[in-house]
Specification:
Lipoprotein; elongated; signal; Immunoglobulin-like; alpha+beta
Length: about 160
């Protein structure tokens, strides 16, 4: 065998080995922290708020979300602890909602009532911070992700005591 043929044979064998090695396992999908926001807040009689949380999966693969634990702060007022069991599989780059009832602080309830008095022109800032637990589709163990969400609540025209 001449040196040129031997060099080509070694290159071909190396290329074939690398191709076989690359085909052995699935491609690893990138996992990024999800995002969390309030989709809707409904002030119920008796003072409780019915909160709809929107969970968005920002990863290239699906994720099974288990639980969110954190704090909801409205305006510059003290926060309320949130503990939501999610139990949802959310596909890549998709979102879904989970609902929970909370008891706001008296200051938060007054701030929301003042917002309702302003009508649809009023806004109230909110912040959600905490940790969400989820298991990416190619992994066996759950991961905990830190999440931060900031936005504004406004009254929904025509639907009393409802804010988005």
């Amino acid at each position: 065998m001449t040196p040129i043929i031997r060099t080509h044979a070694v290159r071909a064998a190396t290329l074939a080995a690398l191709t076989l090695l690359a085909a052995c396992g699935p491609a690893k999908k990138s996992v990024f922290p999800p995002s969390l926001s309030l989709q809707e807040v409904h002030a119920k009689p008796g003072g409780t708020w019915h909160v709809t949380l929107r969970v968005r999966n920002n990863s290239y693969g699906g994720m099974a979300f288990d639980r969110f634990q954190g704090t909801l702060t409205v305006g510059q007022l003290g926060g309320v602890l949130l503990d939501a069991k999610i139990d949802q599989d959310i596909p890549s780059f998709a979102a879904d909602v989970t609902q929970l009832d909370i008891l706001p602080t008296p200051d938060m309830a007054r701030a929301l009532a003042a917002l309702a008095a302003k009508g649809s022109a009023g806004t109230l800032p909110y912040t959600i911070e905490g940790r969400i637990t989820g298991t990416p589709e190619q992994e066996d163990k759950p991961r905990s992700f830190e999440v931060h969400g900031k936005d504004w609540l406004s009254p929904v025209p025509g639907i009393a005591d409802t804010y988005r």
